[in-house]
Sequence to fold (527 residues):
Amino acid sequence: MNKLASGKIAIVGVGESDIGKVPGMTGLGLNAQAAKRALDETGLKVSDIDGVLTAYSFTEPYFMLGSVLCEYLGIKPRYNASIVVGGGSPAVMLKHAAEAILAGSAETILVCAGENRATGQSRDSAVSALLAVGHPYFEQPYGGSIPGFYAMIAQRHMHVYGTTREHLANIAVNTRRHALLHPNAHMKSAITVEDVLSAKPIADPLGMLDCCLISDAGGAFIVTSAERAKDLKSKPAYLLGIGEHHTHEHLMCAPSLTEFGAKQSGERAYAMAGVTPSDIDVAQLYDCFSIVPLIELEELGFCEPGEGGSFFSDGRASIGGKLPINTHGGMLSHAHAGAAGGLFGIIEGVRQLRGGLGARQVKDAELALVHNEGGILSSHCTLILANKPN
Amino acid sequence: MEKQLPLPVANADSAVYWKSANEEKLVIRRCNSCGEKHFMPRYLCPVCWSDDLVWIEASGKGTVHSFTVVRRASSPAFAGRTPYVVALIDLAEGPRMMTNIVGNGALEVRVGDGVRLEFEERDGAKLPQFSLEKVRS
Fold:
């Protein structure tokens, strides 16, 4: 987006559903609970929502999910779509919402996603459904899996840069430590590097604790103009910069296994915001597998290529460190349920800027970066939020 | 839950690819306009959008760009195969494809290893596969 749009849009409400195993709720119900909590923060009424964006659902795979969600919520909006770029969807939805509001297509947009992945389907069907991300004719006959595809990226990073399994394990441990500070995180007990290394192997070099959770979870946020945000009861987080980049879908077609589109999406977000990586106080990086935030960290310019492993191992990514990462516990330890996974990173970015998170709070957080990616590091969107409009 | 291993499925883009595979040939696409070669067959050249494409036979030689040893199968159909190797191969001609590394020493595979083409028979169809050029002792 154009630099002129920087600071003109705000996230004014955020909400998480109950998270973990929530057997009494449908996927749509989790969306509704999160949406209600997000709206309640703002003081707005349901009738003020004139736009709705959602993504997709594996457990409730409606053809027109956006329309179905509006129907469920009793909203008749003038702006509505389902946006499917995998895990990249929440950040991309924010971008579409911002564009729609600036164009006058809507004034207040609800962005919502979530699924009952833990209890709404069997574990096998969860894994099999995700396998559909693999190419049906040229990847699936070989029995690849989502962890397997990311494992090949990890293997290549290890080969090129000397990244180790211990580096990856430290990412999982660091993220878990943060999750223990979050009252709504799915995971409630500490883990050690040894636990990660000895966990059930999934696809070398990744073990069970290098992989994201399978949760019941919904997330929502409310987007409006910075002007409108002034009159609301909640503390806004302003959108300073946002950019996306898409390079492939299937891993076999990825231009590289060490260079992905986070570099370009990040550069677009920094340029729009007029900031550099060293200005960022806290980052929420998509972490469906332990290797992923490491690569994003490097691509987004926070460290040199190959330095990502030590960035996590030496504490720079911990709360109190140089750049705290995934302060809510990420998808490795807070929650992962389809497109809601990345959405929680956006929610946490907003909350860090509002302040008052106790032990989880990053001191003097003024600028938060959030990165979402979808597919196999295929679709990227980076956003930069601030506690002031400029 | 599907227990049978997935079979090759041919469509209009890939009919020649799978027909050639059944004759134990690996074919890829070359663009007559810009000369670029690509793996996943499609209507046009993904580089220059020319629709003047030809099929060429690959030598069957390649190197391992990356790999994983799958310990937990993606579906019940593959559970009986674990542990097995899924790899990305850089063909000698340039394009990259996904495959299994099969045969002797497959689980000892490393990035950069040389591999050669072979075919797996799967319910009457043939699936391109690769094995190691040199088995580690």
In short: Chain B is about 10% helix and 40% strand.
